[in-house]
Predict the 3D structure of the following.
Amino acid sequence: MEVPSGVSYDSLYGRCGAYFESLPDVRAKNSSVRLRDYLVGAMALFALKYPSLLALDQSRTRDEERNLKKLFGLNRIPSDTSMREVLDEVAPQSLHGLFDQVNGQVAEQGHLKGYEVLDGHLLVPMDGVEFFSSTQVHCPYCQVKKSRSKNAAVHYSHAMLAAVIAKPDHSQVLPLGCEPISKQDGAKKNDHELQAARRLWERLWAAHKDKKFLHGGDALFANGPMARAIEQAGHSYLFTVKPDSHESLFAHRSGQGQYYKHYSQKVDKDHWSLEWSNGLALNNASADVRVGFVLLEVTDAKGKVSKFSWATNLKVSKRNVLEIVRCGRARWKIENETFNTLKNQGYQFEHNYGHGKKNLSNVLATLMLLAFLIDQIQELASKPFITVLKMVKTRRRLWEEFRAVFSYREVNSFKHLLATIAKSHSFSGP
């Protein structure tokens, strides 16, 4: 199958369809609906922000059914029940290569160049997020949390570790990949963010050998083994550190007696005071891991003082310290621009679209993140999308208009869909 080029909705969803077509289907050969249609159908669910699988299955108009087939290349539209059953058997790891293909297309079109920081690095903050929790529904891959209280309920959950490409002055984040934080096959113990990070990093390093990553994360990741792994792979890190979690690092910094200060930076209405040192031991147990240490003190217009600090394997200097700090603060984009958007901007990240007995919950979460990536690319690089978003003002309003046009007008492509919305807003009447 010919793989489409470009970064428009039509190109990228065409690329998704081609990728899904290539996946092995372990079902019986006489299955009436292709595996591709189940996966593309789930992507359509998230692309159009349907509230549930049932809504996608039962509330379709004639135009909507025709448009689903036309825009997403569906041969047959699966029922919500069969979609849950089939997607439950799909390994979420089989979908990870699609992140590489989509981001590779963004790079080919030249759009990643604007994300480079600190001499050619791509800033890749990561964080974990829980998207399913229940005291009743569970599967063998659920994380299990038991309270010490005798009569307390057992909590079952699913979470993922996600990594995005971000830049301090860019509104759009580009999900680079994700890894389920789930019990592994046959494991009795819960999975952990650090283990998930190792799996995710190794996959990203193998898939993007031509890239230099600046990995960002909270203080959990700022330990010797993780720092060594990143440096040995030829990449860099910028991790949050705190006095209570990195006592020896802060003690080394205080005892060193030599550090640099830069007091002249004003950012908006705040005053930034910067302090940095190089060559400090990350902790007593990892004395061989030497880091640059940066401390930022922010004083706002009311005199309130807040402090932030990071450790990095980059050499900190007056030339780059301000950019390092901006990148350190951009770690919050994984929470604000990614997880909060998925939870509050129409994607309904925490809604239980289906849990299943094996993989369904993780597969749907992965497909949602892929749909979010494609939306973010439109905000970054699609002039028709950017024009329409400016007209309707908010993402939520845009998704409402997407569904309205999709349900009651015949459209031949996403380009046609966007043009129809734009025309309705530019019409000034007689």
